[in-house]
Prior knowledge:
The structure holds two protein chains of two kinds. Chain A is 36% helix and 7% strand. Chain A is mostly helical. In chain A, α2 crosses α3 (57-65). The N and C termini of chain A lie far apart (82 Å). In chain B, α1 packs antiparallel against α3 (177-200), α9 packs across α12 and α14 runs antiparallel to α15.
Amino acid sequence: MSIVLTAIVVLLVLSLIFGAVLGYAAVRFRVEGDPIVDQINALLPQTQCGQCGHPGCRPYAEAIANGEPINRCPPGGESTIQALADLLDVEPLPLDGEHGEAKPPMVAYIREDECIGCTKCIQACPVDAILGAAKQMHTVIIDECTGCDLCVEPCPVDCIDMLPLPVTTQNWGWIAPPPPTLVADQRGVS
Amino acid sequence: MSAQPRIWDIPGGIHPPENKIQSTARGLEHPSLPARLILPLLQHIGSRAKPVVNAGDRVLKGQLLAVTDGKFSCSLHAPTSGIISAIENAPYPHASGLHEPAIILDSDGEDRWTELQPTAGWRSLEPVALLDLIDSAGISGLGGAGFPAAAKLLSRPDHRIDTLVINAAECEPYITADDMCMRHYATQIITGIQILSHILNPERVLVGIEDNKPEAIAAMRAAAEGEPVSIIEIPTKYPSGGEKQLIQILTGREVPSGGLPADIGVLCQNVGTALAVHDAVVLGRPLIHRVVTLTGAALERPTNVMALIGTPIHELLAFAGLQPERLHRLVMGGPMMGFTVDSAAPVIKTSNCLLAGTIDELPPPPPPLPCIRCGLCAEACPAELLPQQLHWFALGKDYPQLERYNLFDCIECGACAYVCPSHIPLVHQYRAAKSEIRSIELQHSRADHSRRRFEERQARLEREAEQRERDRQARAERAARAKAAREAKAASEKDTPAPVAVAPDLARIQAKNSTLTPEQKQLKVAASTARMALQRARKQLAANPDNLDLQAQIPPLEQAYADAQRAFEQATSQEGS
């Protein structure tokens, strides 16, 4: 009987000690905010387009941290899904078509002679990439445009087009050659 | 300087067939003036030059056409006299085959020089003045990469340069442009080297030439007699002409991974660049022509030419007797590192060779077979990388691992692919992986940039909202204070008799208002509306006394008001009685 009592007392003392250590550590090494959200946010393409159903990339990062699927970001495409899957150690899913399809990088282009200078697109642009003033022609700073589409909808005269980012000798890249193949299939035929 | 200083060896390397004899038999030729020149604004590493001429302008040979834009850029000059016909996208010698903005110059056939300013006494000039001359002559490295020469000379001002290396190795098969350049312009090249060493003030100047160019070595030794320039013969081995490889051969020092030669006190310039420096300083001529090797079995008479920058490739090929039916692939550069070009593209400052190969010379690569892990590629690699590992990582698109295995130290010389028994296009894979890594990095930096802009915009909107809120509160406070002041004033004036009359009046109005029934209220509103309409009409009439319509409106309105008022008074008096 006394051995059982000793065991209970020892375990009680141990649990009290560890509880105190954990409690102290929770206060001493407290992390402000959620670091995983920052890591997720760093992988998202920051177009702030809202196609995932959240008002920007950071809210979606928070939602992912809370368990939302990682396949709702069309601008990020497969590579972002893969990176998120690696970070969170989950299975990569195919892009959810409901939230849009993966597109090549786009930029907004304002047909300047049709622009009436209403400033509505300027207010819609999440990254201040549109330049202009009331009753003055507006224009898009291509280098700053994320291709998020948000300026197209508010335009009252439909003078904004989304065009694919032109390929130049500067952003052109080599395409990987097809991987080497065994000629076993040919051997099988003969 | 005939004593041969010590040289070192580089790891790896290969000995492909040299094929250099074909193009050296005819010396250096001068093709006739082309009718139209295409001058791309980007002929170097860095940013495009900015045009300072417009379509329709008449320009003279050597006149400035485009100026540098930023530190890493090169200006551009007219290679002949003529008229600028356009500034537009034009064919460009690039692996992508894409077009680039270019100045199109129609030659007038006169080839008239603009006024040149030669500098005879360059030895008395300050290095800064000489650098200015080199910069304004638009000289980029003529070896192949096209690094702006002035920027390279200034690349690490805090590092002491003790060795100036002149690259005349020309290790790639077929190419003989530097060889011809040295045979014909040895004296000028030595002067150019002296100008460079006047700028850098190094302890020694080493010119590395492969031993398969005895005529060039003899010419350079004769020209360098008595000068502090060592002409060093090095064994023929590909790729000893790579910048880092040549430095290692001549000095025994290795350029650190990701570093520049300047980090180990060495600066390397191509021999053609030295000639361009001579022309720029001594003759005052900008860089408008260069030696180009025209070779390959599809040409009847392979040769070397002094070609104007911007000459379309097909004109040069025609000069060398192109047999179109034999041409299989047209390559700019050599067979190891060159890329396929379109013959409509022009020759630019970095074009050293045009190789018009037949199908036997440049056969299509056999289909790649799986890697058998023989390890020949690792033995051939001059950068001591592990091409086999890089191959697996590239296939698996494992970019972090590729970077850990120093993919970016690969000089893309092609030695590994040359020795591969499975014909795996290794360099092609590395190039694709490098492009992909660069584009991912670019995306990341862009995403980061967008995120910062987005956050700053959010902060700004918040600031503006707070400011508006503060303004609103300030206005509300002001209004409250004004009201309080009015009430205080009213209270202090209570003693005077006039407000006494007001107080019961107010009480009477309130009493009257509170006792009105809904019907009475309606009547009162109708009366007020009628009065307002009448007043508005009267006001308009006062403004336009001649308007007959308005005059006609007044009596009915007066009538309506009188009726409404009467109805209201009746209602209230009935109530009161």
